[in-house]
Amino acid sequence: MPKPSTPSSINAQLRQVLKDYVAQFAQLNDAELEAMFEHLNIREYPAGKVLLREGQVGNRCYFVLQGCVRQYYLIDGLEKTTHFYTEGQPVLSTFSFDQQPSKFYLYCNEPCVLIVGAPEDEINFLQMFPQFESINRIGVEHELKKSQETFANYMLSTPESRYRNLLETRPDLLDRVPQYQLASYLGITPESLSRIRKRITLK
Amino acid sequence: MPKPSTPSSINAQLRQVLKDYVAQFAQLNDAELEAMFEHLNIREYPAGKVLLREGQVGNRCYFVLQGCVRQYYLIDGLEKTTHFYTEGQPVLSTFSFDQQPSKFYLYCNEPCVLIVGAPEDEINFLQMFPQFESINRIGVEHELKKSQETFANYMLSTPESRYRNLLETRPDLLDRVPQYQLASYLGITPESLSRIRKRITLK
Q: CA-nearest residue of chain B to A94?
């Protein structure tokens, strides 16, 4: 069972993660930020926790305050990783608007502290703080733009340039994620990833 | 110069495109729909119109009522197509929140009828119709989910299965888009696309 956290147990560092995220597209004063923290559902999960399975209907979305959540598809018995969500990233693709079962898994690669959102929480929250409706919308617009840029970059790049891009934009991933998962995420075999790493180190 | 359209010139078929899109996530009555149409900025563009160039700061978003808008990157003098937006699809990735210049082009592949959105229009529109704030947000959430699914499908598939998927999900594209653009969108050469088509026809 996930361990519920009270707002007082959320330390300043975790609060800062959400503050930094929101500050990208909204100016909130301290009172508004505190009100937000008090009404969020924040949970801790151990490494290995499966948040969503293939076949389940997703009815939650998340925001990573700490840890790494991995999205993968199980194809012919092999895990194909399509996303690593880390600190400051929302996990919004898990909610099923049309009640269709999920095609993928969502898995805590590390112990995680997550904000958990359910539709009923959101409705209540937005009734209390209607100004968050537009903040929410702009936040999702940002995510959509980033998602489409990531997709275009993937389409336009070779596995080696994808790896170089990861080195530049998400260097923490290279240390915190097992090599076979990283290789799968880059669309290559672990052996190819090893060759690319050697080549880059030699240069 | 784009030719401005009055709401009366938007025929029932075009209205239906937007109605069908909105009906996916909101129930609007006829009065609300009419109010929406009256306040939208609807424009016609000829085939060949460039809506956004590499290096420009994007300050518009679009919704396709008719036609096909293509997104491409110019890499070493070659156009690499990353998206075809057709009837019923919003083009939301073009707006630059951070005033960064665009890395891609947005081009009318056909004569187009588009809803054009600018930040100031949106603010005015939402002040008049605050109920659209949540409809907008849910619409963008839908787009984000679809975008992430398309990305995952691309990562997990071979060029041949990408082509088969297109045959199933967007068969109209195969007839309305030049082969070299389609090949680029699938991440292959026109020769490979031609081989895949022959193989599938023979089966």
A: B145
pLDDT in tens, A179-189: 999 999 998 99
Give A93's contacts in chain B (Cβ within 8 Å).
Answer: 144-145, 148-149
| A187 interaction partners in chain B (CB closer than 8 Å) | 155
- Name the nearest CA neighbour of B69 among B105, B41, B95: B105
Predicted complex ipTM: 0.82
Pairs across A and B, CB distance < 8 A: 95
Which one, of B133, B145, B124, lies nearest residue A129 by Cα?
A: B133
Residue A32: CB atoms within 10 A of its CB come to 16
pTM of the model: 0.84
Cross-chain Cβ contact B126/A140 below 8 Å: no
Q: pLDDT tens, B50-72?
A: 999 999 998 899 999 999 999 99
Judged on CB neighbours under 10 Å (0-12, 13-18, 19+), B123 is: exposed
Strand partners, B52: B106
Give the residue from chain A lying closest to B119, CA to CA. A138
Query: Does A137 sit within 8 Å of B136, measured CB to CB?
Result: yes
Nearest CA in chain A to B102: A149
Q: Which range, of A82-86, A112-116, B20-24, averages the lowest pLDDT?
A: B20-24
**β-bridge partners, B63:** B90, B115
pLDDT per residue as tens digits for the range B77-87: 999 999 999 99
CB contact at 8 A, A96 and A58? yes
